[in-house]
Amino acid sequence: MRKSTSTEETSTAAPNVQSESPFLSNHFLIAMPHLRDPNFFHGVTFVCEHNENGAMGIVINRPMPEITLGEVFEQLGLITENQNLMAQTVFFGGPVERERGFVVHQPVGAWSSTLTVADDLGVTSSRDIIEALTRDEGPQRTFIALGYAGWGPGQLEKEITDNSWLSLPADPRLIFDVPIERRWEEAAKLLGVDINSISSDVGHA
Questions:
Q1: CB–CB of 105/138 below 8 Å?
Q2: pTM (2 d.p.)
Q3: What is the DSSP pairing of strand 89-92 with strand 114-118?
Q4: What is the predicted pLDDT for the residue at 198?
Q5: Which residues, at least 6 apart from 145, have a Cβ–Cβ distance to it below 8 Å?
């Protein structure tokens, strides 16, 4: 698995939620204020898969206003009359394979290449789900991104130990309903944390 470049060596006593499993599939990663990597600064990443081989996630609060879904359709040779759909913003999902599209969606449904993250939440990278969207036959709720974040074996665990991230179980509401500009703060509130009260200079001399 390719690696991201999100590690920053810092430390802080900020709280962290740990699951019973050592792995964090179907969790959010909230970037600490001192994490300055531009790919993840003030970011919330949805962890789609995490195991002994590494982790894969999609950033959910980094819109790409220069790219619309209509442009994606055009590149794929697809046509739709749904103007609202065509105007929809595509998101930056992470620095790995930025030309590759991913759809986070509810319900899971039956598509050619889907990773089931939870009972009602899937991530699909196959063309058939995009074709279904152009026919207004896609999943009820969708979030579309280009690229993903990847970590090698043990890399994410080390970043969490270094307090680059807060983690908590994923809430689909944050992916589909909460306004983009509020997702970082709202994710932290689910932990009972005011993320803006944590100094961005923590861990620096």
A1: yes
A2: 0.86
A3: unpaired
A4: 85
A5: 58, 59, 60, 90, 91, 92, 93, 94, 101, 102, 104
